[in-house]
Each structure stands twice: as structure tokens, then as C-alpha cells.
Fold these 2 entries.
Entry 1:
Amino acid sequence: MKATKYLLIISISLIMVLLSVTIVSGRPFRLAKLPDEGKNFGCLTCHTKSSGGVRNPFGQDWQKIAIKAKDTYTTELAGLDSDGDGFTNDQEFSAKTNPGDPNSKPDGQTIDPKAELEKVIARGKVLFNDPKLGKSGSSCNSCHPNGGTTGGQMMGMAIPTLKGSAATFPKYKANAKAVITLQQMNNMCIQMIMKGTPLKLDSPESVALSAYVTSLSNGIPVQIGGK
């Protein structure tokens, strides 16, 4: 009986040691995944205390989004305002403020709307070329080569360039039996061609993808309902 109790104590002690090692080794690993590599706030970027433990709002979003994406700072996470202070996590990292602390925000700093738009368009371009949007192994670029700037072929059919396409939305689509927006059209392609899950229309990913496709129509007159 004493031997069994002794072994139990040893086992618990070993488990505690292993957990401690995992926690200690895990922190620098996650810090390296942050846009600032944890240089500005260290563990306080995700936790309420420098020793770790309870997660702050950004840490909670990291747990829900980034950990599921193999500890990746995703475009969805970048577009969120985790601490609710009126600035996205991306804006906070750019301003070197804490995205998990509402009292730490880029007060008095001017946000350049053009630069912010360019960031979103750049994210959309990445998504446009990402086969992970679906399960078929193809991306938007598979049907619309060269970032959508030229036409292509799919199953023997000619696929037009996306230059000017955004200027024709909203418009009626027979296969949807309804008037749809550009974001809904993107979702139809993701679902039907790429065999993926439609993006939530108000999600950062949907906005970014739409922004990129729309950027290909700069300077082209709006013709709602056009081909």
C-alpha cells in the first residue's frame, strides 16, 4: 500500500514537471508567432499577468482562432478588435500598443485610410491565391490566372478576366435565382468550384477578398447588372 502511494506521488510529480517544461518552452514559441515577436509586451500580449495564466481578450481570440490554425496570426485575427478599443489588432501591432488591453491604444496617432485599405487588399490577394479556401486543391487564381487580370479555361469553358467584374455588381445570377453582391458571388465560387465553406459576409476574409477583386476594377465605370 505504501509502495503504491509512493509511486502515485512520483507519477504526479513527474506530470507536474512535464507540464512546467511544456509551459515554459511553449511561451517563446508563441511569442515568435506574434507580428512583433513579443518584443513589445511579452506574455502580457496574450495574458493578464507577465507570468501567464488568465488570457486577456486578444489571448482568448488567439486561442479560438490562431491555435486552431497551427498557431498562425491569421487575417481574421488581424482584422478583429479584440480589446474593443476601436482599433484592429493589426493597427495595434503597427502602433506598438497592446491588442489585449483596452487602455493601451494608438491615441493621438493618425490612421492612414489608404494604407489600411492597401493592407486589406494585400490580404485579399493572398486569399485569392490560397487553395485552403476549399477542398478541391484549386484557388481563385486557378480559374482566373495572373491574379484575375487575364482570362483562363475551366472544363473547356472560357473564363473571363476579373478586370471590371466588380463594377457590374450587384446583379441577377440565374444559378442563384436572385440578385447577389460581389461577396456572395465569391462565396458561390468557393462553394461550387472549390468545394469550400462560404465565408461569413461580414468576416475580414470576405471583405479582404472582395476588396482585392474590386481593386481590379479601379477606373472602370460602374455598370450594375452588366456582364
Entry 2:
Amino acid sequence: MMDNFDNIELQNKLERVINLLRKYRLVEGLVQMQDSPRQELIESVTQKQNLASLQKLIDTLHPADIAYILESLPLEDRLFLWKFVKVENDGEVLLEVSDAVRETLIADMGSNELVAAAEQLDADEIADIAPNLPDDVIEDVYRALPQEEREQLRAAMSYPEDSVGALMDFDIITIREDVRLEVVLRYLRFLGELPDHTDQLFVVDRNELLQGVLMLNQLLVNDPETMVSNVMTKEGVKFHPHDNAQQATQAFERYDLVSASVVDADGKLLGRVTVNAVIDFIRNKAESEARNLAGLSEQEDLFAPIWKSVRNRWAWLAINLVTAFIASRVIGLFEDSIEKLVALAALMPIVAGVGGNSGNQTITMIVRALALGQVSTENTVKLITKEIGVSLVNGFLWGGIVGLFTFLIYQNASLGLVMALAMILNLLLAALVGVIIPLTRKKLGRDPAIGSSVLITAVTDSGGFFIFLGLATLLLL
């Protein structure tokens, strides 16, 4: 219920922004039509009121809400609204928006603005937006950072984006094990605030080697005179910076973690991973897989220029066009059969459509299993066997139903039998190809999700037409 309420509130804010922008554009058009200076003055006052209302609204919004609104606006309105965001919030908003929208905002900013925005962020956050920043801006930002943060930024930018190091946060609190809890409490009061998502403090020795963790609840419920060493615990889960980020997210889900340490090969504490970074990674991964399944090569701005969107989409559309021609040629091979029994033309899309849907279900399951590391060489045969079993059950069930309806409609038992057999065989084909396509792409070092739905549809369309029309030709004509 709370999520639904938040979504409604966010939509209301978006509507308010759109209405204020509409009023501004309307008054702007009226001013340009007027010749009277007095009228222009009146409209100018109105414009100032509209802009003041817009500024007041933007000032009350969270950076994440501003990012959502910017992504929901056409480019002209987006850049106009971007000028109303406070300088101190620029960096946070750039972090929140999608890569495609971030490019449009950065392109509208000067070097000084970009440097000022980046300086508001931590080293790990700067690393997140660094791929979108011009090289000269990165250099200026790097020179402006203290030495420690320079090293952190260099480290963060050196890790692959699918590694734990890319998720790592350097904003951590470390303590020694040979001090009393009362000393730790005073230290925290001196700091004034805790880093976000802090559920534990990291206990290190003088060489920054991780010794254990002190949970905040232990700090609060134990006697202040107790030594840290008496209440600290060994951290159950810790990561290395080159660990796979996907596997780290699974550990967070499995063990209900809020944060976890990142250490080097010698056990030296480098940073931490927090649940918010994990959630962002999971969301981005899901969005990437959804795009890949549809054959989109990169993230696309909803209001991107037409040509840019065309370039993003053309490759797999071209492949789809080729496969459509192949499917049409398969149909062409059986033109005589279709002329003799017109019902075949009406029925063959059913076989292809159900096969495509079944294949996409299989591919979705396999791609997810590959992402979770659940597929290995040892269980591949069992996986294929299982999917064949599922397709056989579905084939006999739905093939029987479709065959029965075909008989009832056309009063032709042989045609109903052909329909049932074609459904069974095409679902078997869909299951086999649905497993083989992502596994093959994975073995070749490619993303198993990219274009998989396009390929499975091509196979089940051409295969479904060939199986159905071939059976019809053999058994009916």
C-alpha cells in the first residue's frame, strides 16, 4: 500500500510540473503575439509567478523524484527544468537518472558546472557517472580531490562494472578492538552522523586488516565499559573486489544483509557493499536483460532523437526481417497445399504463436538460471530432459484441445489430428531451441539474453509452419 501511495504522489508531482510548464509555454506564446508593452509587462509578471511556483516545487523534491520527472519529459522541457535544479543537487540527480538521459543533461552543462556537480559526490559515486563525463572534466575533478579520495576514485574506476568493486562504497566507519564501547559511542557522537545503511562498524587493526564487526545493536545494549573485543563478531560474509557482482547480490538476498565488507587478498579492509547498491544493480540488470531479450543494443532515452533510436533498434529488426522472409519461403513451398485446403492458412498462425510463447517461457527460465549460476555442464542434460517433458505435457494437453476445436469447426478429424501433432512437435522444437540458444551464447562468451526472443520466434515461426504444412501435405492431400 505504501509503494502504491508513493507512486500516486510521484505521478501527482509530475502532473504539477507538466501543468506549470504548459502554463509557461502558453503565456510565452501570448507575449510574443502582443504588441502592447503594458500587456507584455502583465504577462511578464505572470511568467515570474509561474517560474517561482516551478522553482518552489523543484526545491521540495528528492533527487530521485527529480530524476524520474526529467526522464518523463521531452528533451526541450527536460533541459528547461534542469536549470531549476539546485547546484548542490546536480550530482545526486545525475546519479539517479538513466545513462541515456544523463548524456542529454551533461551535454547541456559547462565544464565548470560538471566539476562542481561531481565534487558533491563521493569517489564511488563519481566513478558511476565517470563514463558519461568528458575527459577534461574527469581530470579537473581528479585534481580537486584530496589524495585519499583520488586513490579511491582510481580504484573504483579500475574494476569491471559487473564486479563487487564497482558496487563498493568507501564511506565506512572503522574502530579498534582494544577500546571500550563508551569510547566508540563518543566517537560516533563526534562524527555527528552515520553513513547511510550502517548496521555494523568494522573492527580493524593498525594495518587496516579486518578483525571482525561490531553490530550497532550490540553497541547500544551492552555496558559502555565493555571492550569491543568482547562483543564483536566475525563477519559471516565478506567479498573481494573482483568477485562477481551477481553472486554478491544473491548473498545479500540469501542472508538478508544490509552491508558487507570488501577486503583484498591479505584481508585489508577496502570498503563495503550496501543493500542500496545491490538493489540498484539488480534493477539495472533486470532492465538490461529486458532490453537484450527484445534485441535493443543499449539503454534508450524515451524521448531520444529518431535517428538515435533507429540505430539502437535496427540490427535485430534486420535479423527479424531475414527470418520473416525465410518463414514466408517455407509457406511458399506449400502454396499448392494451402490452395487445396484453405483452412490451413487460418490455422498455421496458431501453431507458430503458441510455439513462440512456449519458447520464450523456456528462454526466460534459462537466462535467469544462468544469471544465478544454477546451470552447469553436469546438469545441462537433465535441464533439456525436463524442458522436453514440460513441452510434451503441454503439447498433448493443448494440442488435444486445439485439435478438438479444429475438428468441431471444420468437421475434419484428420485436420484436427494434424493440428494436434503439429502443436506437439513445435512445442518440442521450442523447448530444445529455448535451451540451446542461451546456452550456446553463454558458451561463446556472449550475453545469453541478447536477441534470444527474436531468435526463438524466428525458429518457432519457420519450424511451426514447416511442421504443420508438411504434416498436412503428407496426411491430408
